[in-house]
Amino acid sequence: MPLFAVCAVAAPELLGKLKECAVALAEAKATDDVDECLPLKLLADVREVWPGRAIHVLTATLLDLLNNIPDSPWRDYGLNPRKLAQVLRPFGVEPRQVRLLSSTGKGYTRADVDQALSRYLPSPSVQSETSETSRANTGADAYAGAETGS
After folding, report:
1. How far apart are CA 49 and CA 84, in angstroms?
2. Are 73 and 38 in contact (CB under 8 A)?
3. pTM of the entire predicted model
4. pLDDT digits (tens, 9 = 90+) for 73-86
5. H or E element in which residue 106 lies
6. Are 38 and 77 in contact (CB under 8 A)?
7. Fewest CB atoms within 10 Å of the CB: 24, 73, 81, 98?
8. SS3 assignment, position 98
9. How far apart are CA 125 and CA 111, in angstroms?
10. Element holding 58 (H helix, E strand)
11. Closest CA to 47 of 65, 35, 60, 70
């Protein structure tokens, strides 16, 4: 806004051009934000669908689990083994040969995923503590205590 104010005084004939530039920059930034969010969303979704305490998961199983999340972008994204590896690689999570009970194949290890989660995403308990703290800071708990006469 300050730039528009200066332009209105100094060069009012350029206001239209400035508006075009501002819109183009805002659209480019919005696209970049979406592209930057997808890898973190994928990492969070991997945490959500990881099968219990399993120390390994096959790539095919992980893809099925991710594609079956309701309202997930992964089916439309065309997530396949190669794309999954490309998106997870910058987090230090790479496919490797894993052994399950009766088979082996390409997959991911819990240790790699956990390390990436601890680096790049807050733990679920931290998120819930934050929301509890926020609720306490709004005075909602104090109001409830006032009703009971505490």
Report:
1. 14
2. yes
3. 0.60
4. 898 888 999 999 99
5. strand 104-109
6. yes
7. 24
8. strand
9. 19
10. strand 56-58
11. 65
